[in-house]
Input
Amino acid sequence: MNTSLKITKIGNSAGVILPKELLARLRVVAGDTLYVTEAPDGIRITAANPEFEKQMALAEQIMHDDRDILRALAK
Output
C-alpha cells in the first residue's frame, strides 16, 4: 500500500489525516494510540506497542526455558 499524506496545521501543531482504508488496515479507530519507531528504512507506525512485544517475547522465552519448573509448580 502506497499512500501519501499531507501535513496539515492543527492549532499550533501539525498533523496528518489518516484515510479510512489506512485506519482499517491498522485496525484502529479515533482515540486509539499509535506507536512510531525508527526502522532501518525510515519510520514505522503501528498499533502494537513495541515495548510490550519485547516483554512478551522475553516472557515466552522464560516460559519455554523453564517449562519443567513451571509445570511442577502448577501441580
